[in-house]
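Task 17 of the worksheet. Students: predict the tertiary structure of the chain below and write it out as structure tokens. Keep your answer in the requested format; marks are given for formatting as well as content.
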Amino acid sequence: MKDFKQFLLRGNVIDVAVGVVMANAFLALVKALVDDLLTPIIAAFVGKPDFAGLGFTIHKSRFLYGAFFNALLAFLLIAAAVFFFVIVPVNVLMARRRTEPPVDPATRDCPECLSSIPKAARRCAFCTAEIGVAA
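Model answer:
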């Protein structure tokens, strides 16, 4: 019982549990955004928000492609919502918060063979081409 208690109280198990709970909450938020805002906008242009009834028949076999189209549309709308309402704003915020200057790289690429060489090198160690002094 002691080992089980230790297992449950380890940091990574708690972190995973919190991550799952937050993912479910975020899923509900994104799903509501797509279902209640983005899908009605598409329905305003197309005419109906549900395509589940769409299909065709070949030799008495019915192919219902509407459910697949609904799933594809939902996937694309969710991906767009996550990208434009989460990823882009977070990237903008992270760029604003960056306080340290960009690190000056210690290497550069050889213009002949594109190998990574030290910045101060005057000759490539891989293709032996003369490079010249770095700017």
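Marker's comment: The mean pLDDT is 84. The CA atoms of residues 113 and 127 lie 7 Å apart.
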